[in-house]
């Protein structure tokens, strides 16, 4: 999956004078965030930036999730959903139930009285869209809370505790238990379960997705680079790599950097601490990272030189760091 930030004719000449920016991440994973904030931050500074996904999602334990969804929410005080991928798993379970022989759609069997607690508006929008889908059913989330009150798992945990204490469910309308269903991925490091448990809640965690290296990364990268070269090629100019055209490659996690490093070396001459050069004719590149942990992994394990580490792990800090580096006389 890849996403290109597009072209602004008013900035075209400025953009051609600046390096391209290749963002090795999945843009707006749940599809409800509008324009991509990283691409926007670079475009505002005159760069051409694009995302190419390095990871892909694999749903897990769907049979177990279908069983939970089918039983309804009477056993739970709430459901905790902290990512668009977890929303996708619920959507898939609902669709499969609606299409299967076991679906009855019986009144009173569902989740309409069970609150769903989310981090951020994008996750809330993803859940709301399930109800609007053609396979809408009593299994769809309706009561969605916490999108504006919480921005992290920790904040969401405290919000859940306070919310359920302030408005306990009425007898006969929802669960009077203190059990929370928590939909997670394979790399879940949230302290949410500990905070909830300390407040007397039982947290039932169910892994519903895992992430792995994208099997399409090289095809997506090659296709994107080919399209970029064709866009910039002058009329009548022969196809070929413009080795003089610089790039920024931005890594966002050590694991994904290790996965794509051998492929990146096929297409780019990346800077190394040992001074080794890449294949002749490869695109020149500099490396930037979203934070110090990723920088350490690239420099110590992959022996690559990192030129920019974002001061904060957000789009503006990353784009500003690269822009300032490019303003240096020796860049």
TrEMBL record:
One of its GO terms (molecular function) is uroporphyrinogen-III synthase activity. Residues 37-319 form the Tetrapyrrole biosynthesis uroporphyrinogen III synthase domain. Gene3D superfamilies: 3.40.50.10090. It comes from Ganoderma sinense ZZ0214-1. Pfam families: HEM4. One of its GO terms (biological process) is protoporphyrinogen IX biosynthetic process. GO terms for cellular component: cytosol. InterPro entries: 4pyrrol_syn_uPrphyn_synt_sf (IPR036108), 4pyrrol_synth_uPrphyn_synth (IPR003754), UROS/Hem4 (IPR039793). It comes from the Eukaryota. This is Tetrapyrrole biosynthesis uroporphyrinogen III synthase domain-containing protein.
């Amino acid at each position: 999956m890849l996403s290109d930030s597009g072209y602004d004719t008013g900035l075209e000449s400025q953009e051609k004078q600046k390096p391209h920016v290749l963002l090795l991440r999945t843009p707006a994973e749940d599809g409800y965030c509008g324009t991509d904030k990283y691409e926007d931050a670079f475009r505002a500074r005159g760069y051409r930036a694009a995302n190419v996904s390095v990871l892909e999602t694999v749903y897990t334990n769907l049979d177990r999730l279908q069983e939970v969804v089918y039983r309804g929410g009477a056993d739970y005080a709430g459901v905790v959903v902290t990512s668009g991928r977890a929303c996708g798993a619920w959507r898939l379970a609902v669709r499969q139930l609606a299409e299967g022989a076991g679906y009855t759609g019986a009144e009173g069997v569902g989740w309409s009285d069970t609150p769903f607690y989310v981090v951020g508006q994008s996750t809330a929008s993803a859940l709301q869209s399930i109800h609007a889908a053609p396979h809408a059913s009593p299994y769809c989330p309706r009561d969605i809370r916490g999108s504006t009150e919480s921005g992290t798992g920790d904040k969401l945990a405290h919000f859940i505790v306070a919310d359920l204490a302030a408005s306990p469910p009425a007898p006969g309308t929802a669960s009077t238990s203190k059990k929370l269903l928590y939909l997670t991925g394979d790399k879940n490091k949230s302290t949410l379960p500990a905070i909830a448990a300390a407040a007397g809640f039982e947290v039932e965690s169910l892994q519903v997705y895992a992430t792995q290296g994208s099997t399409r990364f090289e095809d997506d990268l090659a296709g994107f680079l080919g399209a970029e070269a064709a866009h910039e090629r002058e009329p009548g100019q022969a196809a070929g790599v413009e080795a003089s055209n610089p790039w920024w490659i931005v890594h966002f996690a050590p694991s994904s950097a290790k996965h794509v490093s051998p492929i990146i070396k096929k297409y780019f001459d990346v800077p190394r601490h040992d001074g080794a050069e890449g294949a002749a004719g490869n695109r020149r590149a500099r490396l930037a990272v979203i934070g110090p942990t990723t920088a350490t992994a690239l420099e110590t394990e992959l022996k690559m030189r990192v030129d920019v580490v974002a001061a904060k792990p957000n789009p503006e800090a990353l784009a500003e760091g690269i822009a300032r580096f490019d303003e240096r006389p020796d860049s």
